[in-house]
Amino acid sequence: MYFQDLSVDLNDILLLLNTPSSQRPPIAIRTLQNLTRNIPFFKQLISDYEERAHIECCMYLKHLFLEKNSIVCRAGDVGEHFYIILHGNVKIVAPDEGGRKFSECTILMAGCAFGEYALLKNCPRSATVVCVDDSHFAVLSKKDFLRILGTFTNRKLDEIARFLKSLPLFAGWGLNSLARLGYFFRPIRFKRNQKVFSEGEPAEYVYIIKKGEVEINKEIIVKSPSQIVIGNHGRPLPSVKKNQLHTRGRISIVGFGEIIGDDDVLNGEYYTKTCRCYSSTAEMLQISSFEFKKRIRSEESLSILAEKNAFRNQHQDFAVSIIQLIQSPSGRTMRTKTSQEQKFISDIKALNPWNSSMKTIKSTFPGVALSHRPSFSLSSPIYKEKILSQKFGDTAKF
């Protein structure tokens, strides 16, 4: 769990949160601030906004515990609280357009927050939230949330809307529509070589790169040759290796504004490639596959996605073919020898007593086929020295 990884005692936080706000001394607020500093929500709040907002949250946050399968809030209810998950997981279940069928959108883990959109826009809840485990929450009332975090959250949504507006996919959208869409995106950061998703995993999210670069790689199957040739004069032999070799090749590096994972989400159930952070750090916006398919469905947007994916797939298929060509093992091909090389070999063979005896045996017994070979090398320096001495005299030495 989150607090086990950080060696922070959850009970200490719960004890302070259960103390009434009016009775929390400054030392308790500072202690709570230090204990919650590394929770992802507060870590981003401090980084993007200011320390004062975190301090004020620690003054007014309260504790809420709900058992497994309990409903935190229902779709259509009036929003009254903002929730930060301290322990446990919750699932977001959203209705379809008719409001009859509910589908699971995503699962939020410890350190995530939810519930701000209904408070900011003064509108009903858009989804139902259910506890997957026994869960502990830090909760802010609507009044305290709007006073402390309202400006920060609105600014964050506006920033996401402006960023999305700069992308070709969302160029035709209005800022208000993008602000509503921005609520479904979650900022997420990665470090170098950290995996974003792996080939073969369920395609659950789509990512848009805000900062940094990521590497796209794929498992590539390379066919082995059916036969090999040993030596320049060897005969073809069946290959004892497997008919296929599996290798992993880098097919592209993408950066700012690129959308990754969308093709797999729209056309299949699993990721067909692996994505890792290539730069020292990378910042992305993550949206669940359910919300992506639900929100991105206009003909113009789908047409832009189809055109982009067609071009990208063409480039990646070309990269795969190049990797297969480079990595493909091939049998050794025989090279035609020059006349000078052939004469040199003939001169060496002429000095070999085995070859002389073979000629005598073959001329005497033409039907006899001998399979023995000499036990010494014809490329021995002794024979080379004799040939060179015949050509250039005794001065030719190695």
Please, could you describe this protein's structure?
There is one protein chain. The chain has 398 residues and is of the alpha+beta class. The protein has 15 helices and 18 strands. The protein has three domains: 2-148, Jelly Rolls (Sandwich), CATH 2.60.120; 184-224 and 249-320, Jelly Rolls, CATH 2.60.120.10; 339-392, no CATH class. Helix content is 40%, strand content 25%. The chain has a four-stranded antiparallel beta sheet. The longest helix is centred in the last third of the chain and has 29 residues, at 299-327.
Task: For the structure shown, list the relevant keywords.
single chain; 398 residues; alpha+beta; Jelly Rolls; 3 domains; 4-stranded antiparallel β-sheet; 40% helix; Cyclic nucleotide-binding domain-containing protein; cNMP-bd_CS; RmlC-like_jellyroll; cNMP-bd_dom
Low-confidence stretches: 368-378
- What is the CATH third-level topology name of the largest domain? Jelly Rolls
Helix content: 25-40%
The total of beta strands comes to 18
Question: How much strand?
Answer: 15-25%
The outline comes out as: elongated
* Lateral arrangement of strands in the main beta sheet: 1-8-3-6
The CATH superfamily name of the largest domain is: Jelly Rolls
Q: Report mean pLDDT, rounded to a whole number.
A: 80
**What is the class of the largest domain in the CATH system?**
Mainly Beta
> What Rg, in angstroms, do the CA atoms define?
35 Å
